[in-house]
């Protein structure tokens, strides 16, 4: 596909942000991105925002209008994109399509979620709306429960161990120490993970990404328009998206996320590169097992060997492919709708050489965003 | 308050494991579908009652439960592969946490799933228990 | 035309709590209680079980035993004191869950512990009148006893379902006789969580009077005597009462012991006499005659004479027996019991 430039990035801190409202978060991230791009409001042609559930978290729908309004960007066309936890990644794809179709030259793509205004039990129930209500959630299934079942099957079939899962968290926490925007910036040990309270056997508290507030934003431009603002922008050279059954029980295999495999295939094809060329990747580690499934599904490691690869340090900073240098969803935080866009921010920083202590030497980067237990997957490939 | 019509529409399926069979390709579906993903418009779906027996493919023990199920935690949830082919998500009852294992044969029982508070509708449906030896 | 039982099914939940455990909490003397009530433990429903789920499991077993198509059932009556809803019948939930809908009539019954036998009588009438082919009568309960009250030692959960018809009957109902008066021995007002009772008044003027008169009435009506019966079953609120009334009526232990199961599972209220009958039917031989008399507080008794038929040998064996349910048990303590019975206010 024709490449699209990322000319600006912006992010809020992720965490329990009691003082910030939904719109304040978006405006903060958006303003930073606009400044980073060196553009003005009048240069923008459209807004795409990823948000999973404004309706249930803050009882607000019609997010597209809310965002344009509070960003001071009316009457620009504004679109809210939703695919559960893949909302952000999907918003990026729509921004790309808006530009490559010739409709727009410069678009703002953001993601935002405000999750802490309701009690934790309510949040658990809201996150479970990404699963099938009638036949999964209403029967007592939870989101961690779905991934826990995938973990158990993966452990049964491939011998992935509890310790290997824990090592995903340990690595991501270590990476986040160097990320000033991360929710958790402290290291943890495998022991600490294995002794944290049980959430859904075998997944424990420290296997699970947290509840977070936050927003992220990138400015996309056609490669011609980009030249007016930025000398050497980072480019998105591939995009892939795939759907799969909404329920976990509806999937062919419980240990391979086919949406990831299919989305990645499209992205690699459009980018004309192979998995082994990716040296830095932000993958969807909503739970430790999700990272294992991701690095297998994206073609970095063979199916069944993700656990071993993690254990052997192949996904550390400087390893075969540095995975989740930002700290991933686990340590950086997971404000659902913002995540996909935050991943793009990290990859852009990496390829720009601005990742400081998290820096990886890479020509190509990848972001991977999943909705629900794998009902949607969106993959983007970036290059210098 | 949960939706009364939505709950009512799926009563037959939840009480009696009524799914669908595609007369064109022979595939059995549960939960029931409106269109056969295999055949799409060439498919012909008809009601099909599943026997309610199968084996456990994977499971978890839910410790942190959603609001409606809080008082039952910890409880076992599993994906069961029914003998006719479809996989379903269900709670496993009459089974000790130490006894649950992949491959265990289970069969359907009729239980209370949840209720809409103390004054709302009670939802009944299927859960599964280990088959006696 | 012979009318009778075409099939039957039971269900008893698996948890049990011992008399000692309840006594421990409320300062009772376990040995005295066990001796005087002749009961050692009772059945407790799981958190997700109630009268409807018990009725459905029993009904499913009954349909399987009977070997009929559930769509041929023309009426379902569920008798209980613990219907899940005050308004909205348990019977329709059962009807849907066994696939009997939509061509049938349904209603719920309440007459304390004899609602199930009243349901049988109704089904008999509809079958005899030719209005239905088969009727399903169920007695099921998840009885509540107030914490600390003597009834708490016996109030248990369980149920039995009987399919009444004319074809392939395993037990012919030779006749039925009822004795009913307005006697306030045990009651529960609308909105109250627990029932109340008249203490010793529940004995002679209530239980004994009605069972005695109903049983004598039935025998006189059919021209039968105590030694015409091989087995007898009575409502069992505890282990003492049924043995006492049996002796008073002139029956001996060989006739009445087999039908007494209260000592192992407690008083299942609407399920009580029907579960005792099922226990007897599980091992009865063709040609045997069984007397069963229920008792419901308020008060009344329904008595039946049942003649076992050859069909019983062909039909039995594929569904769980009362003994099987009695022996699949797991003991719990008072705290878990209080949680499962939702006695803890949340």
Overview of the structural elements:
The complex is a heterotrimer of chains A (384), B (133) and C (346). With 384 residues, chain A is α/β, with parallel strands linked by helices. Chain A has two domains: 4-119 and 214-234, 3-Layer(aba) Sandwich (Peroxisomal Thiolase, Chain A, domain 1), CATH 3.40.47; 131-207 and 237-383, Peroxisomal Thiolase, Chain A, domain 1 (3-Layer(aba) Sandwich). Chain A has helices at 22-37, 54-57, 63-70, 87-100, 120-127, 143-158, 162-176, 190-194, 223-226, 258-271, 288-297, 306-311, 328-332, 336-352; strands at 4-11, 46-50, 78-81, 106-113, 198-200, 203-204, 214-222, 234-243, 278-282, 322-323, 364-371, 376-383. In chain A, the strands form two sheets. A ten-stranded mixed sheet of chain A has the order 3-2-4-7-1-8-12-11-9-10, sandwiched between helices. In chain A, strands 5-6 form a two-stranded antiparallel ribbon. In chain A, strand 5 (198-200) and strand 6 form a beta hairpin. In chain A, helix 7 (162-176) packs across helix 11. Chain B has 133 residues and is mainly beta. Chain B contains two helices and eight strands. Chain B has helices at 4-9, 11-16; strands spanning 18-22, 28-29, 45-49, 53-62, 75-82, 87-92, 105-115, 122-130. In chain B, the strands form two sheets. Chain B has a five-stranded antiparallel sheet with strand order 6-5-4-7-8. In chain B, strands 2-1-3 form a three-stranded antiparallel sheet. Chain C is an alpha/beta fold. Chain C has two domains: 4-170 and 313-336, Peroxisomal Thiolase, Chain A, domain 1 (3-Layer(aba) Sandwich), CATH 3.40.47; 174-310, Peroxisomal Thiolase, Chain A, domain 1, CATH 3.40.47. Chain C is built from 13 helices and 14 strands. Chain C has helices at residues 19-26, 30-37, 51-66, 90-97, 115-128, 203-222, 240-249, 253-256, 262-265, 272-283, 311-315, 322-327, 334-340, and strands spanning 4-11, 15-18, 41-44, 73-79, 105-109, 134-142, 157-165, 171-183, 186-187, 196-197, 231-234, 289-293, 298-308, 330-331. In chain C, a hairpin with a 4-residue loop joins strand 12 and strand 13. In chain C, helix 1 (19-26) crosses helix 2 (30-37) and helix 6 crosses helix 7. The radius of gyration of chain C is 19 Å and the shape is globular. The chains are: A alpha/beta (384), B mainly beta (133), C alpha/beta (346). At the A-B interface, helix 5, helix 6 and strand 5 of A face strand 4, strand 5 and strand 6 of B.
